[in-house]
Write a structure and sequence with these properties.
heterodimer, A: mainly alpha, 2 helices, 0% strand, B: mainly alpha
Chain lengths: 49, 240
Amino acid sequence: MSGFFAMGGYAAFVWPAYGVSALLLGGAVAATLRAYARAKARLAALEKP
Amino acid sequence: MAGLFALANPKRFLAVSGALLPWLAASAVLTLGTGLVLGLLSPPDYQQGTTVKIMFLHVPAAWTAMMAYGLLAAASLVGLIWRHPLADVAAKSIAPLGAVFTVLGLVTGSLWGRPMWGAWWVWDGRLTSFLLLLFLYLGYMALWNAIDDEIRAARAAAVLALVGAVNLPIIEFSVEWWTTLHQGESIFRAGGPAISAVFLWPLFLSGLGYTLLFFTLLVIRIRTEILERRVRTLLLAGAA
């Protein structure tokens, strides 16, 4: 298992690549969902009679 | 085309995309998850060792970034010619996503280049034109933010997007035109893919996953923008 995480000596390049990708894609998903929820809430508040 | 225009009505778009969204999101998670797990479990490459695992992130990110720009240019063209508001909304929604995938392509490429080429960055045709892609996305977003009037902003940004589209073939063929450290096309080439099936399958799945994730986020962003525009219209009607 530790061999897997060592990535044949390239751990310092492989894992940051996966980390950055997870961070940015996760951030894009979070930002998109947050903006969507906000828009839905604003519209609901306006359309309330 | 007629079908596309029928869909390009905000109300109908909300209905159709709402039904599609859960399936789109689920297939994105499934393909991306499978692709990356298979990728991480794939054996080391005989030349590149384990750094080949960066390929499953780098190639899909770069591919999605370029496909997104193609869509941005197409939506801009439709917006300019047919003055269709939903095309403007789509183009505006694509740009930030495209920028994220471009950054990912650049960063993962750099992390792959350092161990394999001995350099984080080189100013060759492929890398420079790909950096230009990021600046095009950022310029497009800045232009949208700089002009208050929605219709004028969309038009100006669309012209920028179309001019910038000339960069796409430059990125694509840069590895053939100029001397470069970046490898040439190894998937979509005459004679079939030049990489082994143990790498091709994870790469295909992860590429599909990135593409589906992009479209999932794009659909949500377009829906958000449609709702925001309705909010603005209601506020204006209320103020009048």
